Amino acid sequence: MRSALLGALLLGGCAAVPQNAARIEAYAANAQFCGHTGTPICEARVNRVDGQAVFAATTVHVEPGRRRLGVHCRINLSIMIGDAQTFQREIEATLEAGKRYRVEARMDPEPCTVTLAEER
């Protein structure tokens, strides 16, 4: 019974992705340097689409069209955990069906500067 329920949940999750969805992957530039010297962005996730909360993840599938993407960033300016800061940014974009996009979070010109580019 337990494995049947798990299987149903996994299949249900796969069926929830629209067939013509645009795929968006969030990427924190130089995350390997987080808490050390260098660019301290630890994490970047898409957590809102058109003002609606989504399961925050590094990869989301979104219906094509004009969309407003909310991006959550967490940065750490030192090796101390308590020094972490979070930012919320938004990107307006027109997404095409079946295309793959990449949201990149950087530290300049300000913390958690985000850009969206189509992957080739």
Q: How would you sum up this structure, described in words?
A:
The protein is mainly beta and 120 residues long. It has one domain (20-118). It is built from 1 helix and 8 strands. It has one helix at residues 2-15; strands at residues 22-28, 41-49, 52-57, 59-62, 65-76, 84-95, 100-106, 113-118. The strands form 2 sheets. Strands 4-1-7-8 form a 4-stranded mixed beta sheet, with no helix packed on it. It has a 4-stranded antiparallel beta sheet with strand order 3-2-5-6, with no helix packed on it. The longest helix is centred in the first third of the chain and has 14 residues, at 2-15. The protein is elongated, with a radius of gyration of 16 Å. The model is unreliable at 1-15 (pLDDT under 50).
Task: Draw up the topology in text.
Layout: H1 2-15, E1 22-28, E2 41-49, E3 52-57, E4 59-62, E5 65-76, E6 84-95, E7 100-106, E8 113-118
Beta-strand content: over 45%
Q: Termini, distance in Å?
A: 44 Å
String of helices and strands: HEEEEEEEE
Detail the poorly predicted runs: 1-15
Strand elements, count: 8
The number of distinct structural domains comes to 1
Largest sheet: 4 strands, mixed
Spatial order of the strands in the main sheet?
A: 4-1-7-8
Percent helix, as a range, is 10-25%
Q: What is the CA-based Rg, rounded?
A: 16 Å
Structural class: mainly beta
Rough outline: elongated
Helix segment tally:
1
**Mean of residue pLDDT?**
78
Top keywords for this entry?
1 helix, 120 residues, 4-stranded antiparallel sheet
